[in-house]
Amino acid sequence: MKAVKVIILTLIVIFIAVQFIPSGIPLNVPDDNRSIANDSLVAGSVLKQLRNSCFDCHSNQVNFPWYSKMAPSSWFLAGHINEGRSHLNFSEWEDYSNREKVRILEEIKDEVVSGGMPLKSYLLIHRDAKPDAAEVAAIMKWADDATAKMFD
Amino acid sequence: MKTLFSIFVPVIFIGFFLKPALPVSQSMQKSESIYPAEVKKVIDGKCYGCHSDKGKSQDAKDALLWDSLLNLPKSSQIATLDEIIKVLNENKMPPEGAVKKNPEMKMSPEEIRILKSWAESRADNMMK
Fold first, then answer.
1. What is the mean pLDDT of residues A8-29?
2. Rounded CA gap, B90 and B50, in Å?
3. Max Cα separation, chain B?
4. What is the dihedral of CA A30, A31, A34, A35, to 10 degrees?
């Protein structure tokens, strides 16, 4: 019984101690003028879908959940957000060249149609982020139309 | 019978120790003429071993097959060329593990420049 108390107490101390380790979670950037959300390229239901399924890891406008403020979950979130933004940051859409936008749009199609994105670990908590068949079709059509505009 | 034996045994024995050409520097065959010579030389020496039908890594083959790259639809081809430019800028290819195993696979700055400028020029022309 005493051993159990010692283990629990040790875990509590460790839990409190790790809260002082910086998580590395990037902050949201208030200035979002260069976002795809301000581009005429996307609007309506597709923009809503992108916000709902992608923006938490692929933009500077993250809806931080309560567990983002608590280690060790904050470490995992930091890793996902930093890696997500390094691959694609919708908030920096206007900074990409048209050539890069074509690549990104192709990657979006590949990921959405294969079910690679959103990540399964994200969907465990954000069940409504998974696009259904009609939403996948809408994203695919939008990506094709957006790609065609890159050549205008 | 004895003569046959004396011929075949040494041939088989020698053949056992002979190795085929280095797998690292396999050469493109089908697409030989569509890449400029200096680009083809870099691809053959540093990329083709993994990014061809004979490559062992499915991920590498899914990402890029040099033999079919130039037959891809326009947007897919531009996307792949831009990815090539991106990984070269980030020094991600050839992968660190492959270079550790075969140090001769490491790309020189000149080889990176050759491959990157070809990919940029082709992708930018296709964007017009």
1. 89
2. 19
3. 72
4. 20
Are A142 and A112 within 8 A, CB to CB?
Answer: no
- Interface residues from chain B to A (CB-CB < 8 Å): 75-76, 78-79, 82-83, 86, 123-124, 127
Q: How near does any CA of chain B get to the CA of A150, in Å? A: 8
3-state secondary structure chain A: CHHHHHHHHHHHHHHHHHCCCCCCCCCCCCCCCCCHHHCCCCCHHHHHHHHHHCHHHHCCCCCCCHHHHCCCHHHHHHHHHHHHHHHCCHHHHHHCCHHHHHHHHHHHHHHHHHCCCCCHHHHHHCHHHCCCHHHHHHHHHHHHHHHHHHCC
Low-confidence ranges of chain B (pLDDT < 70): 1-33
CB atoms within 10 A of CB B101: 11
Look up residue B82 and give its two tokens.
């831009």
**B80 CB burial (10 A radius; 0-12, 13-18, 19+):** buried
Predicted TM-score of the model (pTM): 0.79
Say if residues B72 and B78 touch (Cβ distance below 8 Å): no
DSSP annotation of B103 reads: G
Over residues B10-39, the pLDDT tens digits come to 544 454 444 444 444 456 655 446 899 999
State the smallest CA–CA distance between residue A90 and chain B in angstroms. 17
The pLDDT of residue B23 is: 43
